[in-house]
Design goal:
heterodimer, A: mainly beta, seven-stranded mixed β-sheet, four-stranded antiparallel β-sheet, 11 strands, 56% strand, B: mainly beta, five-stranded mixed β-sheet, 0% helix
């Protein structure tokens, strides 16, 4: 298995809802990442997990809460989002944090906040 | 942090070579140049990377100038499936990776 699987592919949520995005990989990678991508903009790094521990938080608002329950799973819990949080959320993984050329990206979850 | 500058868009005729430039005049000595591409509605895909020497793989070639202040990604025979946004990225000293604005390449039949 050489893929990163993200679910759901599309999500519409209200500003008072709580939802979660899921990312899964079975390549034995020990680093996992969340990126946010607005329309016609490049991906922006949000969080980095290394060996299941949060190593980088790029000053992301607390309404986004990441979780890494095990080495294959990465979740992004969403609560009280704003319409401006609507974006494509990309998950990626790599063997190690420094192995950038080994990044594998999922196809993303397209989130719409109404 | 070192940054990259790319033209916002380029066109290329199908079957011809696509040459995508990238300027990175403030690159540090130990920073690699990476290229990724993103086809519409998909996640970014790794293409190639290099430090000083030119590199080639089954997808593309990477030419880095001797002073390392710029590089060019070459797709030798562009196809319609190569239409995508191409990102030139530097790995900075903090081992954090930031995407630049990229070049939107359109391959024309």
């Amino acid at each position: 298995d050489t893929e990163v699987t993200q679910t759901p592919k599309h999500l519409v949520m209200g500003m008072t809802n709580k939802k979660s995005l899921k990312c899964e990989q079975h390549m034995g990678h020990r680093a996992m990442y969340w990126y946010k991508q607005k329309a016609k903009k490049p991906p922006e790094l949000m969080f980095v997990y290394s060996y299941e521990k949060l190593s980088i938080n790029e000053s992301v608002p607390s309404r986004f809460s990441p979780e890494c329950p095990n080495s294959s799973l990465l979740n992004l819990h969403l609560h009280a989002l704003q319409p401006e949080d609507s974006a494509l959320y990309l998950c990626a993984s790599s063997q190690e944090v420094r192995a950038f050329y080994g990044y594998t990206f999922g196809s993303g979850t397209r989130l719409t906040v109404v | 942090d070192a940054k990259t500058t790319q033209p916002p868009s380029m066109d290329c005729a199908e079957g011809r070579a696509a040459n995508l430039p990238c300027n990175h005049s403030t690159i540090s000595g130990n920073e690699y140049v990476y290229w990724y591409r993103q086809i519409h509605s998909q996640g970014p895909q790794y293409i190639i990377h290099g430090l000083k020497n030119n590199e080639t793989n089954e997808m593309a070639s990477l030419i880095i100038t001797e002073d390392r202040k710029s590089s060019t990604l070459i797709l030798p025979h562009a196809t319609l499936r190569d239409t995508a946004v191409y990102y030139c990225i530097l790995q900075n000293t903090g081992n954090q990776f930031y995407f630049g604005t990229g070049t939107s390449l359109t391959v024309i039949p």
